[in-house]
């Protein structure tokens, strides 16, 4: 048999032995997912990174405040270096909201005076991040 027209898989005119499927070739004019809706180019990438940074900072601030509330309510050792560090960071983050709520129950006072700034940081940080992502 010669090489021309030799019966092998993919060279048969029979409908029962079809040719192998063609390899996937992406559309050269397709827009990558990361650039859809951005008007092309790399426009908006910096805003997305800045939004992610703000989003992350708001989460870290709320985590420190929540951790301090948890450590206080569980009566963690105040002389411990880690507890002192978390208390210092939480006190700095919640400095603007101290004594908004004045109550006799110390646990409730700490909870509300530190939970309020945590919620504010989350709401403002996530709101600003969502707004930046739309730019």
Q: In a few lines, what is going on in this structure?
A:
The chain is an all-alpha fold.
Question: What attributes does this structure have?
Answer:
135 residues; 0% strand; elongated; mainly alpha; 52% helix; 3 helices
3D structure, described in words:
The chain is built from three helices and no strands. Helix content is 52%, strand content 0%. The protein starts with 44 loop residues before the first helix and ends with a helix.
- Alpha-carbon distance between the termini? 67 Å
Mean pLDDT: 82
Rounded radius of gyration (Å): 30 Å
> Major sheet: size, sense and barrel closure?
none
What level of helicity do the residues show? 40-55%
Number of strands: 0
Which regions have little confidence, pLDDT < 50, spanning 5+ residues? none
Please indicate the percent range of residues in DSSP E strands (runs of 2 or more). under 5%
- In one word, what is the shape? elongated
SS class: mainly alpha
Secondary structure tally, helices: 3
What pattern of helices and strands is seen along the backbone? Answer: HHH
What is the element layout, followed by pairings?
Elements: H1 45-73, H2 81-93, H3 106-133
Helix pairs in contact: 1-2, 1-3
């Amino acid at each position: 048999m010669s090489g021309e027209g030799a019966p092998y898989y993919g060279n048969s005119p029979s409908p029962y032995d079809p040719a192998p499927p063609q390899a996937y070739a992406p559309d050269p004019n397709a827009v990558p997912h990361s650039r859809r809706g951005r008007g092309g180019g790399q426009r908006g990438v910096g805003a997305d990174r800045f939004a992610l940074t703000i989003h992350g900072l708001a989460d870290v601030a709320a985590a420190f405040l929540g951790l301090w509330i948890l450590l206080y309510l569980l009566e963690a050792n105040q002389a411990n270096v880690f507890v002192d560090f978390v208390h210092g960071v939480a006190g700095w983050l919640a400095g603007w909201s101290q004594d908004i709520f004045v109550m006799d129950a110390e646990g409730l006072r700490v909870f509300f005076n530190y939970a309020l700034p945590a919620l504010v940081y989350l709401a403002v940080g996530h709101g600003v991040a969502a707004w930046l992502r739309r730019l």
